[in-house]
TrEMBL record:
Keyword Lyase carried by entry: yes
Protein name stated in the entry: 2,3-dimethylmalate lyase
UniProt keyword Lyase present: yes
Molecular function in Gene Ontology: oxo-acid-lyase activity
Originating organism: Natronorubrum thiooxidans
Length: 315
């Protein structure tokens, strides 16, 4: 069984910035894995929207997030970094949260210092818990990591930059305290310009994450080469798959509303242009057929003789 935590740590030790596309379910994760990335990120916003229909405002629960993370990691062959919101409670709750994510097999999580209910880190109205309480949560998470899987990567995030009384000074102070408490990587949410990014690179005493949210938030578009120069180690593109899904499905369904048959032809053509094989091949049907051959009685194969439909092995 692959230890994805080990694989992620080995990749992070390389002297090269790691860029991770964000996905929100096993389907979008499978697409990303087919394209080929060293690691993939599970977005909290996209998970909430796709699983519950609600925005990233504290509506999704720990079991729903962990189930999604586990299903995604099962579907892909590279390490998964997962959002774990604010740990779903205080430090004692964080103990179980981290245990459950480790049991799910993911390589890493990030935990933030927002109050409950938390909300997207690029919306107004965020609040953070006191620094000492936040440090205690990271200490709890680090202890679980050390006990259960030392190769599990713990990313500690602060939203202190974007609160009503927040500042970059406070954010830097917090993530440095989180690193001292045992976090592996620091994550300051919401730096507002390149000068702030450069300052993070100078003053944060450990590896750094940048959350590349594009037009959604207050953080700037910036070249990856600049982030690497400033000392960042990991870049997350959390809503890449979610925005792509909404934009492409909307465009296709606009056409569908006018002419369903022509729209379906266009969708078929667009899918067939991708190097993923048929839908059956992409979804894993050939593996199911192989399981049947390996584990079911031989006469079970007779169901394929004379039956109609696509051959699940060839699409």
């Amino acid at each position: 069984m692959t230890n994805y935590g080990t694989a992620l740590r080995e990749r992070l030790e390389q002297d090269e910035l790691l860029a991770c596309p964000g996905v929100h379910d096993p389907l979008t994760a499978a697409v990303a894995d087919s394209v080929g990335f060293d690691a993939i990120y599970m977005t909290g916003y996209g998970t909430s929207l796709s699983k519950t229909g609600y925005p990233d405002a504290g509506f999704i629960t720990m079991p729903e997030m962990i189930e999604n993370a586990g299903n995604i990691q099962e579907r892909i062959d590279v390490p998964l970094i997962a959002d774990s919101d604010n740990g779903y409670g205080n430090a004692t709750n964080v103990v179980r949260t981290v245990r459950e994510y480790i049991k799910a097999g993911v390589a890493a999580i990030h935990i933030e210092d927002q109050t409950f209910p938390k909300r997207c880190g690029h919306t107004k109205g965020r609040q953070v818990i006191p620094k000492a309480e936040a440090v205690g949560k990271i200490e709890a998470a680090a202890d679980v990591r050390d006990e259960r899987n030392p190769d599990f990567t713990l990313i500690a995030r602060t939203d202190a930059r974007g609160t009503g009384e927040g500042s970059l000074d406070e954010a830097i102070s917090r993530v440095n305290a989180f690193l001292e408490a045992g976090a592996d990587i620091a994550f300051v949410e919401g730096p507002t310009d390149e000068a702030e990014l450069e300052r993070l690179g100078r003053e944060v005493d450990g590896p750094l994450v940048y959350n590349f949210v594009g037009d959604l938030g207050s953080s700037p578009y910036v070249e990856l080469s600049s982030l690497e120069e400033w000392g960042f180690d990991l870049v997350l593109f959390p809503i890449a798959a979610t925005l792509s899904t909404i934009a492409n499905v909307y465009a296709d369904f606009e056409t569908f509303a006018d002419d369903p048959v022509e729209a379906m032809r266009d969708i078929d053509d667009a899918f067939n242009d991708q190097p993923v094989g048929s839908l059956h091949e992409f979804s894993g049907f050939p593996e199911v057929v192989e399981w049947e051959r390996q584990y079911l009685p031989e006469d079970e194969q007779e169901k394929y003789e004379g039956s109609l439909g696509d051959d699940p092995e060839s699409g």
